[in-house]
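ingest -> validate -> predict -> emit
validate: passed (alphabet ok, no gaps, 158 aa)
predict: started
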Amino acid sequence: MKNSARFIISIAMPQVVGFSAALITNKYINGYFNQQLIKPGWNPPGYLFGPVWTTLYVLMGIALYKIWKSDASKPVKTQSIVLWSIQMFFNFWWSIIYFKEQDIGLALIDICLLWLTILLTIFSFARISKTAAWLLVPYISWVSFAAYLNYTIWTLNG
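emit:
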């Protein structure tokens, strides 16, 4: 496969995951459940999440592309790509669990698993490409913030 096709696929995959989750949860974000939650004063405004996630998905895609096109051995690349895919799985389910299923505690478990798999992905990517690993640092930073926010909302709402 040509690198240009790999690049397009790598960029598109996280965007499709994010867009799919957004389609499922969009009608719930402004619903009664979310509006009634007690949130901390430092909760970011809703309009911020779309641009932040779009940017993070682009960075995830570029990182994946750098791994996919690398000269690393197939088993090493496969392990990295599998870890990347697992973290995308947890990423996809968080908003559905939180907004659609209205289960803040289960969402907290999901985001902790997401954080752990991002960290493992960063370590795995670093063995192949330091740049790819660093491209995921804003992502784990945002997820760290989001996990703390999730925890705080869970605590405030019992």
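The mean pLDDT is 96.
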